[in-house]
Amino acid sequence: MRKETYNTKGKNAINSAIKVFSNGFTIKELKDYLDSNNEKIGQTTIYRIIIDLENKNIIKKYYDENNVAHYKYVKDCESEHHFYLKCIKCNTITHIDCECIKEFSAHVYKRHKFLLDTKNVILEGLCNNCNKFF
Fold first, then answer.
1. Are residues 57 and 31 in the same domain?
2. pTM to 2 decimals?
3. How far is CA 64 from CA 74, 115, 131, in A?
């Protein structure tokens, strides 16, 4: 039997709030934002909802250089062949909807016998703003 899911006030508040953070957020930043907007949601509830959103591929989880978990709302994409670019300096994540990941995935499989999940590929490097300093 399928478990029913409900839209609660807390879920709706979190779904709206995650879209505000263009460069991603930590749980603490999300909690602070919700508190400042008079949305009193417990941290355990926030974690539970965030895990659910991550499992549904609505947000992506990534880690900064200090191993702190960050999350980013990622737009729904109609193509199953897309990937993300993560800046290792400013932690921004950019969604890339490009068929080139199909070729890369085919190469990895043919040459290295490893099948990529092309919906969850995150490549790390420096964004245009941060690479100006090098």
1. yes
2. 0.69
3. 18, 26, 17
